[in-house]
Automatic annotation (TrEMBL):
This is Small ribosomal subunit protein mS29. Residues 10-26 have a biased composition (Basic residues). It comes from Turnera subulata. Residues 1-38, 51-99 are annotated as: Disordered. GO terms for cellular component: mitochondrial small ribosomal subunit. Keywords: Mitochondrion, Ribonucleoprotein, Ribosomal protein, Transit peptide. It holds the Pfam family DAP3. Residues 71-85 have a biased composition (Basic and acidic residues). Residues 51-70, 88-99 have a biased composition (Low complexity).
Length: 487
């Protein structure tokens, strides 16, 4: 009886096998996982492929290691076969890399140029004319020096232009391996123009009937030398004892950093740019600023600082009587909350200075007449670009409708687009076009590159240098790039 009950219970609890798990050729069915889709199977394999390979590799290495240990145990006196030495390729030699070749060429050229310095007969330009001027300062240059090269000292340049040199000037110095620039008639005209503004008695016979301009916008084609001419003008003015507010990179005033809308002015403040501009201004002009007293004693308003927001308490900083312009600049440097207010006040103070000539020199000036990098959110998904005139710093320094001396150079390499002929806040006759190299200037430049071994002297001819002049259309940077191709 009990035996029958047990057999019935076993038949009732027998494991159910699905039809897809039936193996008719096997006595016992082995339970396996149900089938999965092709894609999930591939994913499963891809996910574990790296691990499985590493496991197999590890197992293989362990197996090899065990075999090797067994072989070592069997006979330690058997030496492993040595691989033949790999032949050295030319690519493995660091001296054959392009950088090393260029370095060797420059080093060799530098040695030859040092030897050439002892041979003054090489310092000849077109038609046997002297290639270098004997003038030692930019103030000594006369119209007779036009078309010659002026030698600069690195120390003098860094001292006169601590804000930084233009990229084109640094490139010219590097590739020619000499700190010299061509004295162009356009530079002499600009220099003499501002000379006559300060001292009208310096009017020459050739300048009769030509009135001096206090405000100039320097325009011209790409790589015609606008930034270099402006930098030379700034150095000359500082050598003359002028107070120069020089901005070598005007684009930086409209790009990057922190910005916010000041509710008191309705303009956008950029405190980081303001602090950097004040630091640059004080580098060369510290001694002048300490001697010039403040003439406006209204408190300087505070704003926000990058990442810190507004200060608690009073939002005005008093300007004590007896303060100098140096104290005003230091106020903005030491406290970024006051940086924008200090530089806007500085612009007003500089317009009142009468003891020393003041010149505002702005490179990349065209960036102040187009849209900035900043945008104002309008909705959750929309924003509007902020124009440069809406920035407090640009708004304070952009206008030329005043009685101060000011020159702004356009920079078409920054690609802000073509601006209209007549600009707002700029006199109608302020624009001056700087030409590219003339044929005579190109002849001098080509002879200079021969002197500096940028052009092969044996292959140099009038036909060859005229070819690169006409191909480049007088573009200075392109002429310098094509010069080594004369072989």
């Amino acid at each position: 009886m009990l035996r029958n009950i047990s057999r019935a219970a076993l038949r009732t609890h027998k494991t159910h096998r699905p039809p897809w798990n039936h193996h008719h050729h096997q006595k016992e069915a082995v339970p396996i996982s149900p089938p999965i889709s092709q894609s999930s199977s591939l994913n499963h394999l891809a996910f574990f492929s790296a691990k499985s390979k590493s496991k197999q590799k590890t197992a293989g290495n362990n197996k090899k290691g065990n075999n090797q240990n067994d072989n070592n145990k069997k006979g330690n006196d058997q030496k492993p076969k040595e691989k033949p030495p790999k032949p050295a390729s030319s690519s493995d030699d660091p001296s054959s890399s392009p950088a090393a070749v260029v370095f060797d060429e420059r080093a060799s050229r530098a040695r030859l140029l040092a030897t050439d310095e002892k041979n003054p007969s090489l310092d000849l330009g077109p038609k046997g004319r002297a290639l270098f001027t004997s003038a030692t300062t930019l103030s000594q240059l006369s119209r007779k020096d036009a078309g010659t090269y002026f030698n600069f000292s690195v120390e003098g340049l860094k001292a006169a232009l601590p804000e930084g040199l233009p990229a084109g000037m640094e490139k010219e110095f590097d590739e020619s391996m000499r700190n010299a620039l061509l004295v162009r008639q356009s530079f002499l005209d600009l220099r003499d123009n501002f000379r006559r503004v300060v001292d009208p008695t310096l009017q020459s016979s050739s300048d009769k009937g030509v009135s001096a301009k206090k405000q100039i916008v320097l325009d011209g084609l790409v790589s015609c030398g606008k930034s270099i001419v402006l930098a030379m003008l700034v150095q000359w003015a500082r050598e003359e004892g002028w107070l120069v507010f020089y901005v070598p990179r005007g684009r930086e005033w409209t790009h990057g950093g922190f910005f916010y809308k000041n509710p008191d002015t309705g303009l956008y403040d950029t405190p980081l740019q303001a602090e950097n501009a004040l630091r640059d201004f004080v580098k060369y002009n510290e001694s002048y600023l300490k001697q010039l007293p403040c003439q406006i004693f209204d408190p300087v308003p505070l704003g926000e600082s990058a990442g810190l927001g507004k200060k608690k308490g009073d939002q005005l900083v008093p300007v004590p009587e007896g303060s100098s312009l140096y104290d005003l600049v230091q106020m903005g440097i030491n406290d970024t909350h006051a940086a924008v207010g200090a530089i806007v006040r500085l612009r007003k103070e500089l317009s009142l200075v009468k003891d020393v000539p003041v010149l505002f020199a702005i490179d990349q000036y065209n960036n102040w007449f187009t849209f900035s990098e900043y945008e104002e959110p309008i909705t959750m998904r929309a924003s509007r670009p902020i124009h440069a005139r809406e920035l407090a710093m640009v708004n304070a320094f952009r206008s030329m409708m005043h009685d101060n001396m000011m020159i702004g150079a356009f920079s078409h390499s920054t690609a802000v687009g073509k601006l209209r002929q007549f600009l707002p806040d700029v006199p109608a006759d302020a624009r001056v076009n700087l030409p590219r190299y003339t044929l005579d200037e190109a002849a001098t430049v080509s002879h200079y590159y021969v002197r500096q071994r940028l052009i092969n002297r044996e292959a140099f001819s009038e036909e060859s240098w005229k070819k690169i002049y006409y191909i480049s259309n007088g573009n200075g940077a392109e002429m310098r790039g094509l010069a080594p191709l004369i072989q």
